[in-house]
TrEMBL record:
SUPFAM superfamilies with a match to the protein in the record: P-loop containing nucleoside triphosphate hydrolases (SSF52540)
Organism of provenance: Sanguibacter biliveldensis
Protein name: AAA family ATPase
């Protein structure tokens, strides 16, 4: 099964994965952003985009990687990746389901004020210089509008968990409890 953690950039998906891996050591993480970074040198100059998710190659590579992990029988895989374009979401999850892979989707929601606080706290805790922090913080703040616009379809297609006032450990526990409710797509038997 794929446990997909969605939510706004900077909401705590990576932190939640760390807690999930502690609570459930059998889980395996696939950070699909790394696949986007791997594609960037080959595609960015010929097919410039604002977000690597716009590349069909990224979406296909995500599906292929998750399919291969399922074939390798590594167990349940947790994916911390914001996807706010419904068409991309449907393409990825629909193809996984067509391949017989269950997808449990949990959106980690956080209210705006707390989200902005987490972005600033995270940026301050990173060792990069100010030049590295400012663009990442700006990117996360600017993308909040995309998340807010996507929230209606995310509520329909994922289990939305409000993480505004709970600790990372409690978020992980709530995700594990929510996984059965987050099952939006199951393969047809």
């Amino acid at each position: 099964m794929i446990i997909w953690l969605n939510g706004p950039f900077g909401a705590g998906k990576t932190t939640t994965v760390r807690e999930l891996l502690k609570a459930s050591p059998g889980l395996v993480e696939l950070d699909t952003e790394l696949l986007g970074y791997a594609l960037r040198p080959a595609l960015a100059s010929r097919h410039p985009v604002g977000d690597f998710q716009e590349w069909p190659a990224w979406r296909r590579l995500v599906v292929t990687a998750l399919t291969e992990l399922a074939r390798a029988d590594v167990g349940d895989v947790v994916v911390p990746q914001t996807v706010v374009v419904e068409e991309y979401w449907d393409e990825i999850t629909g193809t996984l389901v067509d391949r017989g892979i269950q997808v449990a989707a949990v959106t980690l929601h956080v209210d705006l004020a707390e989200h902005l606080r987490r972005i600033e706290t995270d940026m301050l805790s990173r060792p990069e210089d100010d030049a590295g922090r400012v663009p990442a913080a700006r990117w996360r703040r600017e993308r909040r509008r995309d998340y807010d616009s996507a929230l209606p379809w995310l509520r329909a297609k994922t289990y939305v968990l409000d993480t505004t006032a709970i600790s990372p450990e409690d978020v992980a526990e709530a995700v594990l409890a929510a996984v059965p409710r987050g099952l939006q797509h199951q393969p047809q038997v």
